[in-house]
Structure formats: structure tokens, C-alpha cells
Design brief:
Chains A, B: Keywords: Cobalt, Lyase, Metal-binding, NAD, Nucleotide-binding, Zinc. Chains A, B: One of its GO terms (biological process) is chorismate biosynthetic process. Two copies of one chain form a homodimer. Helix content of chain A is 49%, strand content 16%. The mean pLDDT of chain A is 93. By secondary structure, chain A is of the alpha/beta class. The first copy, chain A, has 14 helices and eleven strands.
């Protein structure tokens, strides 16, 4: 499938990805090629990937999977391993994994000896259509997501849809949630077609989602304006995700599951503040509830979630900024929301 | 004194620095202004600085001074404090301190919420003429110096020579060592005049050294070529500094003291490999020994120091790259040195 050009790197899919990787390594004179994996991708993806790569995987570095390991302690471990294995400025880091791994691996590479090259090879649907595209790297600080990081582009992103065969449906749906978001913020037709799907690994849809994210990021790499629209559903979604992660009594939500709730809540806010039609809000709610079910939040939960809002990276001067929809396919940024609407939004979600 | 223009920021000296800072803060609409200090600059420099700044120091953040605190643990503490005090993307961090503090503060700012603005206000001679200029930020990984970091420019650098009054002579000499390096690598006349000085706080000399470093950095911000010349004396100097820091039986050397030794050693290598005259090597050795005295290294010390060389950031593909002098005022980069010359260089230093 044809490649997608970005600012300084390219996204290659399927058979072209393999050729691009081999070519890049052949021409780049790297001193060492490191591959970062977790216990899952080591078992399920690394054998397949090594065949694609040919002979050139000098050192495999392993971290533990999961958002609770996406922190500075894990970075320190990888920095030390790179150093121990004589990584130098001409080393290359290949990040083979989901969003946690590509976010963390990108940050480690961007900061090791003030920056070495890295390539993202996303193995989950979520990271194919979202995390691995756009140059955001980073780790969490306690329960606060992605508080520490830099914006830095990989050399390339390689998408092999065959890795999706290794995933459970719950994981696939988490990526599907971000793909639906791409439709909601930029392309009503894409939303319309995608929301009726019952399998989520269609290569054409993956490509469409990557193209939408890439278009936005190219126009605004450092999130001064347009790029903010990608945060639709994420302001409340991140707070919900953090809350469930740090609360031992709650089941941990996958990223896509949390932002699915966020998108329902923020569509309600869009209706109240920006004229998104009642019908559209219903459509958003029904679509996400159909695929993700409903999660219960009591008054104490909601209070704690709203408290986490103030740490959102998108804020400045103490205000909480939202991305809202004017209509399906059109997003507005930097909207302030009166506090009393939050409880109403949660009530709408629950009803 | 007239300001020095850099790529994306300016270096302001003396009275202009105060005006530039006030103006920048007035026009920038920062949500919060943080000042990072250590226990020394808090006591000796912060009161003076607050007067210059006027009213706008919202939160003072304190770290412990010293190279042994220049690590990720200290970064985590500062990231957490920034987060605790509701730092957001529109916050500003003012780094008030020596090289350890501006390197660490620059890294913390560059990575907090994927990057907030920072301004360096160096309080030591070393950081005025070296560390605060050029956008290198970072911290140590164990005993390996500056292994973790990014290249990112501050909004501006403000130089107030009056802070030098708070320093001991040993500290001043550490900066003087870097100033002498600027002469050795770029300007023979500057070297000639500077090496005869007995006081080290001359504002014109400080300005000359900043201008030399800045010229080099502007031409090559990411150290692909010319910028490497700034590493003269640093390849062996860093290894010596690391060795003394991690070895409890050795007295810790200041950075300038370590690279003074490094410059003598590397001048000897320059004579052996690149034709630097015997007379010039003698001149370099006498100058540094006059100001810094001689440090003893036995065979075991030298062996351990050479082992540390392989972790130098400037290496690639397992070779150790050196900057050597062709003559005083002219440096050459990427020179490989045969291993047997290292012992000869140490012998020359000791004789």
C-alpha cells in the first residue's frame, strides 16, 4: 500500500514498510541496532519482525508492558541498558510495541546522549492510528499521564497490519475508538462508514485514520492550534483513565475505552455550548455504548475525576480548555466549560 | 554592555539583561514564573535577583547543589514540584545557578509537559561562558556525565557579572579554564592576553568568550561538525572528572580543573599527531600548571580513566574521537588516537 509522507519522516504500510526499513538501515551506517520490546511483543511480534528485518538486530531490550510501567524508572532502566551495551550517538532504536512502548521508547531515544534515531513499529491498532504518529513522546508522572516528554519525530513509522492478529478484541476496540474520533473531528463520511463496522483491522480504514492524524500534525506539529482537535474526548477521557488507574478498586480502562466515555461526555457539552444537534449526540452515545458498554461513576468518583482535570497538559492560567464539536466532522478548540455542566454530562452518560 | 545575538535567543549582559528580562515577562503572558535555585544561590543570589526581577517570582523551587545531584532523581523532584504548584504549558522556569543547575533546569523545562519556556541566569563564571550558552541540557547517568538530555535553546541568557563576587577563587578558576580553551581552539591573541591575567572576572573577557562559543554554536547547533571543537580537553577531561567523582578516595575535581588536565594531555597528543609545536605544548602545560597545580595519577588510575573513555558521547562505532590542535587558535576534529599514546601523554603531564 502507498506510503504516507509526513514532515520529516514517512509512514510505510505492509510490504513497502519492510523494504523501507531494510533500505534505511543499509544506507545509514548505524553503529548498533537496538530493538525495544515488552514481554508480549517479544513473544508474539519479535520473531515475525526479525524475519522482516533480516540479520540486523544487535541487541534486544525488554521492558514490562502496561501503563503502570510507563514512567521514569523504566526509562532509567532502558538508558542504563543502552549505555551498558555501548549504545552511542549513531545507534538506532526500533520501538516494537503498543503506545506505551513507542511513547516511552521515543522519549528514551530523544534524550539518550541528547538524541539518537528511532523508528516506531506499532503492534496495536491504537498505536498504529494514533500514538506512533505525530512525534509526541513521553511518560507518566505518578498518575498524571504524559507529563514528561518531548516532541520529536521518528525516522519513520512502519505499519504491519498482520501484527493485529495477535491482539484480543478488547485491544482492537481501543484503537477503533481513536479511529471513530478521527471521523468525528474531521470527516463525517468516514465516521458514518466506520461506526457500522464489526471488525476493526481493515487496512484501508487504518490508512485513512493515519492520513487524518498526519494531516493535522503536519499543519501544527507543536500543538499551537489545529492539532488540539485531536484531544477531543481526551480532556475528560484522560482524567477518567488516570482515576481508574490509580484507584485499586476500579477496573483499569484501556485508553480507547476511557476516551469513548470522554467523547460521549464532551459531545453532550458540545450540544449544550456549541449547537451540536441532539440527534448527533444520541448517535455518538449509542455508537460508543454499543461497542464499549457503560461504566458506573458515583458522586465521589465524579468529584475525584474533575479534580484531576486541573493537571491536564492542555490547560493554561488555571482554565480547563476543551475541544468540542460544532457538528460531526467539525471541531472547535479552546472552549471553556462552566463547571456545573460536568455533572449534567455525567448524568446524560448514565441515563 | 551590548547584547550578543544567537539563533533564536539573545545573551544579555549587565544592565541590558535586567531590562530584557522585565520586558520579556511583561509581553509573554506567562501563567506562572518559577525560579529554580540551589541552597547557595538561594542565599547569595536570589535576593539580588528578586530586586532585578521586580514582583514576578511566583514560586521558588530548591534543589541541592553539586554534580552528584545532577541526576534523574533530582529532575523527578522538580517535575513533581512544578506539577504540585500547578505549572502548565504557559509557565516559565528561570534557572538561577551554575552549570549543574542550568543543565538540569533546562532539561526539566524541555521535558515538562513536552516543553515549557526557560531562561538561564548563570551565577558562576563557568556557566556564564560555557554551560548556559548553546542549548545543551542534561543530567548524568550514574557516573557518566550528561548521558541523558536534549538540545533545546532557552528564551534568553542573562549575564550579571556581579554574581561572581559571591564565588571563591577556585570556582572562578574553573570558568577561567574554559575561557582559555576558547582562545586555544579559536583565537591565539585572546589566549595570549588571557593567560597572563591574575583576576578572572573581566566583563570584556567574559563577553569575548561568550561570543566565541556562540559563533561556534550558531554555525552548528546540533554538533554535526564545527561544534565538536568545543570538546577540546574534554574527552580525557570528562573521564578524569568522572573517575574522581565516583572514586571515594580521590578529591572531586571541578569541571575546569579536570579539563585543564585534559587540555595538557590533548595538547601532547596534538604535538604527536598533528604537528602542534613543542613550544606551544610547553606553553599550554605551564599555563595550566601555574593556575591549577598538578594532580597525581598512578598506573591503576590511568587504566580506570581510559576505561571510562568508551562511554564518551562523542564516540561512534567504538572509536574514541578527539579534538586536537594544529596550532594555538586552530582545532581539528574527529581524530583517532592510538592507544599507546595515552600513557605517554600522562607521563608528559607528570614530568
Amino acid at each position: 500500500m502507498e506510503s504516507i509522507k509526513s514532515h520529516s519522516y514517512e509512514v510505510h504500510l505492509e510490504e513497502l514498510a519492510e523494504a523501507a526499513l531494510r533500505q534505511h538501515i543499509a544506507k545509514s551506517n548505524y553503529s548498533k541496532v537496538f530493538v525495544l520490546v515488552d514481554e508480549n511483543t517479544k513473544k508474539k511480534c519479535l520473531p515475525i519482525f526479525k524475519e522482516k528485518l533480516g540479520e540486523r538486530a544487535d541487541v534486544i531490550l525488554e521492558i514490562q508492558s502496561g501503563e503502570n510501567h510507563k514512567n521514569i524508572a523504566t526509562c532509567s532502566k532502558v538508558w542504563e541498558l543502552l549505555s551498558h551495551h555501548n549504545g552511542d550517538r549513531k545507534s538506532l532504536l526500533l520501538n516494537l510495541g503498543g503506545g506505551v512502548l513507542t511513547d516511552l521508547g521515543g522519549f528514551v531515544a530523544s534524550t539518550f546522549k541528547r538524541g539518537i534515531d528511532f523508528i516506531n513499529i506499532p503492534t496495536t491498532l491504537l498505536s498504529m492510528v494514533d500514538a506512533s504518529i505525530g512525534g509526541k513522546t513521553g511518560v507518566d508522572l505518578g498518575s498524571l499521564k504524559n507529563q514528561i516528554g518531548v516532541i520529536n519525530q521518528p525516522q519513520m513509522v512502519l505499519v504491519f497490519p498482520e501484527f493485529l492478529k495477535t491482539l484480543e478484541t478488547r485491544q482492537l476496540k481501543s484503537g477503533y475508538s481513536e479511529m471513530l474520533k478521527h471521523g468525528l473531528i474531521m470527516d463525517a463520511d468516514y465516521w458514518k462508514g466506520l461506526k457500522e463496522k464489526n471488525e476493526f483491522t481493515d487496512a484501508l480504514c487504518i490508512k485513512k485514520s493515519i492520513a487524518i492524524k498526519n494531516d493535522v500534525v503536519i499543519q501544527d506539529p507543536t500543538e499551537l492550534g489545529l492539532r488540539k482537535i485531536l484531544n477531543f474526548g481526551h480532556t475528560l477521557g484522560h482524567a477518567i483513565e488516570s482515576y481508574c488507574l490509580e484507584n485499586p478498586e476500579r477496573e483499569t480502562l484501556l485508553h480507547g475505552e476511557a476516551i469513548a466515555i470522554g467523547m460521549i461526555l464532551e459531545s453532550y457539552l458540545s450540544h449544550e455550548l456549541k449547537g451540536l444537534s441532539k440527534l448527533s449526540v444520541q448517535e455518538v452515545k449509542e455508537t460508543f455504548l454499543k461497542h464499549f458498554g457503560r461504566v458506573s461513576f458515583d458522586t465521589a468518583d465524579i468529584k475525584a475525576i474533575l479534580k484531576l482535570l486541573k493537571y491536564d497538559k492542555k490547560n493554561s492560567h488555571g482554565d480547563v480548555n476543551f475541544v468540542l464539536l460544532q457538528e460531526i466532522g467539525t471541531a472547535l478548540t479552546d472552549i471553556k466549560v462552566p463547571h456545573d455542566l460536568f455533572n449534567k454530562a455525567f448524568a446524560y452518560y448514565a441515563e
